[in-house]
Amino acid sequence: MIDIDPWTITGAVLKAQARADNSRLREIMDSLVRHLHDFAREVELTEAEWAAGIDFLTRAGHITNERRQEFILLSDVLGLSTLVTAQNHAKPAGCTEATVFGPFFVKDAPRYRNGDDIANGAQGEPCFVSGTVRGIHGEPIADACIDVWQSDDEGFYDVQRSGLAEAQGRGQLSSLEDGRYDFRSIVAVPYAIPHDGPVGQLLQRLGRHPWRPAHLHFMIHAPGYETLVTHLFRTGGTYLDSDAVFGVRSSLVADWVRHEAGTAPDGRVMDEPFYTLHYDFVLNTFATQT
Amino acid sequence: MIDIDPWTITGAVLKAQARADNSRLREIMDSLVRHLHDFAREVELTEAEWAAGIDFLTRAGHITNERRQEFILLSDVLGLSTLVTAQNHAKPAGCTEATVFGPFFVKDAPRYRNGDDIANGAQGEPCFVSGTVRGIHGEPIADACIDVWQSDDEGFYDVQRSGLAEAQGRGQLSSLEDGRYDFRSIVAVPYAIPHDGPVGQLLQRLGRHPWRPAHLHFMIHAPGYETLVTHLFRTGGTYLDSDAVFGVRSSLVADWVRHEAGTAPDGRVMDEPFYTLHYDFVLNTFATQT
What we know:
Two copies of one chain form a homodimer.
Chain A: H1 8-16, H2 23-42, H3 47-63, H4 70-77, H5 80-88, E1 126-135, E2 145-150, E3 170-174, E4 180-186, E5 191-192, H6 198-205, E6 211-212, E7 215-221, E8 228-234, E9 253-254, E10 256-259, E11 262-263, E12 269-270, E13 274-278, E14 281-283
Parallel strand pairs in A: 1-13, 1-14, 8-9
Antiparallel strand pairs in A: 1-4, 2-3, 2-7, 5-6, 7-8, 10-13, 11-12
């Protein structure tokens, strides 16, 4: 006969799932159950608080659709996404750090050649981005596939704007023979993550804001190397110390240098101020990819 | 500048929510974040496993509607509901134990008088239920409001059957002056919790079945006493040792005594076999209710 109290319940659940065929699933669920129960005991969760939790998850589920993922947002603001990214991409010193993927990546973005303008009509101050892609021993990586995506000067990605005929602020290019890359785009700005749902309400009740510092997204893959998913942030940018999704790494903050109107890096004469940003990426060898 | 790794992320999230006005919310979220992060580190959660978790929650959210609550089901099968119930209803020895509420309660069920047949057409072998409602000092409790609800002989509650004009296997009655109650109903049978969704798939992958042992639900409230939400289980019943939602307490298992056709407790002559079930409930005084 089973006699369960707030302490013996944990052993009862672990015993019930002890026959799971999949030992990894059992390991995960055992740990999950122990921590879930420890949490409920530690805070002496009341029935009303439990019901509030059920209601929160229900509302998060109902607001989630093909274009909005409230559970990923929740994972992001609770630091879980950053934790999982970090522990799966431990790298030797000298490699470029990874950070969160975010929800705005699009597969098969338009192909560009080095030097092209990937803004493709997105509004913002011009920014010329350049650098190299290398391995940890300094070897240049040719033909690395570089995906770039970013917000416009109102903080929106192209996928958040309806009625666009073409991708904007997003593209794919390949590194040159000597590992160099360069493209033209616009200056990214800080933006708020979607905060009109349960996660936004939670942030507000926790005294937290929903803002992310300005950043450019990069995903770089090359045969024999660990795929790098990361951002570049802006030196001195707002929210660097309070990114709502904990994505900032000091090694990913770079100078976005402002220039008055004049000759740009690509030789053309600009009649407005522009920015330059230089960053050298270092990929890890493939071995640590799981 | 923030430099976050799989360990420092936890402190960064706690710091971010340190300014929450509501100290209880902060206490809960601090504990939740610590346990969530400890879990992810302990099992070294991979990105693919994280994505599977997001997908599970999304599917649970999408299958949840006004008549189905997959998150409560998840809480039930993970033992969280039982833990929360137990820790919020600790009582002096001698009081009837509480167990999980379940999703099949209906407010304002039909009123019956003692001796009435609450089956009201639900199919099953007749069962005559009787007993008393008393306080911990043995005092009879008059006019206690007793809600009863149960499945029929196919394991379905009335709310799971479409097209019923009236409630079946469900009713509300009041204890008599001397604390006694009695009613006629049918014998409840084991049934499977809804298992055609993500929670059912999880149970299957964990090597667990979705069955609950036969039981009658009771909710009893009386002024000055802690409301009691509980079940009565059947001695020797199937699944007593493996209830999918961990609701069984040995103190709640009672003899459902089978009788051959003949005179029933209410004096009528039965031309088929019938059961009797006697249980004396003991309510806690109100003080421990939070």
